[in-house]
Amino acid sequence: MLTDQQILRIPGPTPIPPSVNRAMSQPMIGHRGESTSDMISDIRPKLKRVFGTEQEVMILTGSGTSALETAVVNVVAPGETAAVIVTGSFGERFAKICEAYNIETHIIEVTWGEALEPSAIKEFLQEHPEVKAVFSTYCETSTGVLNPIAELASAIKEVSEALLIVDGVSCIGGVETKMDEWGLDVVVTGSQKAFMLPAGLAFIAASERAWKKIGANPRPRFYLDMKKHRDNIIKDTTPFTPAISLLFGLQQVLRLMEEEGLEEVYARHRLMMEMTRSAFNALGVPLLTSGEDASPTVTSVQPTDFEAPVFRKIMKQEFGMDIAGGQQHMAKTVFRIGHMGYCSPADMLQAIAAMEIGIAKAGGAVELGKGVRAAQEIYLNEGKR
Amino acid sequence: MLTDQQILRIPGPTPIPPSVNRAMSQPMIGHRGESTSDMISDIRPKLKRVFGTEQEVMILTGSGTSALETAVVNVVAPGETAAVIVTGSFGERFAKICEAYNIETHIIEVTWGEALEPSAIKEFLQEHPEVKAVFSTYCETSTGVLNPIAELASAIKEVSEALLIVDGVSCIGGVETKMDEWGLDVVVTGSQKAFMLPAGLAFIAASERAWKKIGANPRPRFYLDMKKHRDNIIKDTTPFTPAISLLFGLQQVLRLMEEEGLEEVYARHRLMMEMTRSAFNALGVPLLTSGEDASPTVTSVQPTDFEAPVFRKIMKQEFGMDIAGGQQHMAKTVFRIGHMGYCSPADMLQAIAAMEIGIAKAGGAVELGKGVRAAQEIYLNEGKR
Fold this sequence. Notes:
Chains A, B: Keywords: Aminotransferase, Pyridoxal phosphate, Transferase. By secondary structure, the first copy, chain A, is α/β, with parallel strands linked by helices.
């Protein structure tokens, strides 16, 4: 096998574009100097466009979880009650953070592979008027479900004053996000998914309503204090030492996104999702989620006539291609294909053609070329729209 | 379209492996220091294995043509007659170099897309006993023909004392070469093809027989004087300043080749050729060369129901994929796919799936998925051998 070839098709991290790798290898600069301020000044408006907000998007040096914790400690005051929508293992993470802070937390469990119905959150909040904050994933990475965040936000607003805090880690940058228009109160994401960067940066923004809450919240915090971050970013700086090389990369990533056009970026992600789903449908290999609940960034597959772990091992051995496993109770029954960030329709054609071989080698029934053909048809029809 | 993605499927340069790019970005070192000598000492035996020779393989700082010229000026003495086997545009280059030196040169023309029959060179030399040197390409890059070099060498030896000088630029490193066993007198290649490096280095080795000729040859030469190069490389150094970053890269490339195993490298190239050829056969798109004459490193396609230039433009626009055109009189009727160097079966699955779309968009008749299926079947059968 060709050595030194790794084809990363997991739901994050994604491959890094060459120009971003080059940007990240620039010589270090002082983080209190003018060059860093100029860079942050260039980044700020572009980051706001990706979030769909006029609010400041703050840049934390930390992984996605640091931003989830930032949301919890800034928004939920001591003694307040929260609710967490759990559609998979990343929903659970919000619950664990709340638990670590002894926050009274309701768990709204949804069957893995399904999204939450907006009516369900409405009913829940009518029964639980004490809830001050609702946490939800946007894309649930562990299942490939995209929760209907805009609809959840309006359902919540109809019956409650609770703030909606959204974990967009595995989709923002690849899926349209209109934070202000949809009325999302806190939105969080990380750098290593649709942002095409290594892990190490996290981004967070808050609505006016949320900022009021944050300002009045006496819960102790320091590194993760959103007010400190906002006071600094509006002056094109950061309260603590930023990961400069990742900022170099972020600046280039945002340039690439604007060069392609945000609408085009989102259309490319939808196209890759449709190509992937249509391929497995054509091959008769069951998908975990319905088309309605599916995320444009990650697809979960639940094979019935071959073993997912065997298949994944074959893909790695034969093609150097990394396909993710399922998580927790789905660890051995599901595999997940990332199609986000630095990933193209041509990459999906490759992944699908290679996966057909992988399925055959894993003992699954497969009509060679049929999945590729379905994906090609989607691609060709897309062009005709 | 995803910006910053370029999929290079031309017959050289090929993509560079990431570890080779990293190696090439090491800080400069002095080329007369111990580190450079250690590096050349590490490179020498590995380069000999790729050439299949016990002779020294000399490293020139220059492109492939510098090594072709090196062969001419060192091997052909003033007043001697040469013959050049021309199976395409790179055969012609040898003839042009001979012409520049006013060397009396016979041209043995072969129809583009075909290899030379060993019997033909035998007959030719019987009629032309004055010929002292025969020049031939191994792989003719412009057509994707692999000349039967071992057979040509023995045919020549049967009837003549003429030296055989081989241009292996677009195949050595991807195709087995047994210089000593086959009796090749001078073998030349460049860095940017199956060696997976940028252009800038060229390699040349000579047989005992050729060295005698070289030693006695009074033709003036300096930078390209093979004797100067040999006197230095045996002391792990070079007569002139070498391209150090390319040497860093060469050292890593040779490590990768040995890690994979040379036999495996050659098998991978044959597999990629078979996958590509079977795909076009299944799609009913004519290939330029027969299976017998085909090179494992490049495939030429001669479509009848769509325009090659239109197709190539579509491939670039849709997928950022570079497919080469034909050369000279075949510029507009042929396209060429490189499958050498840093290129894998997974890359060929991608290229084939994408090319099916390209053919459809160029107006060619194509049954989607059929070429991919044929390639997948080749891949699966290969594994069973």
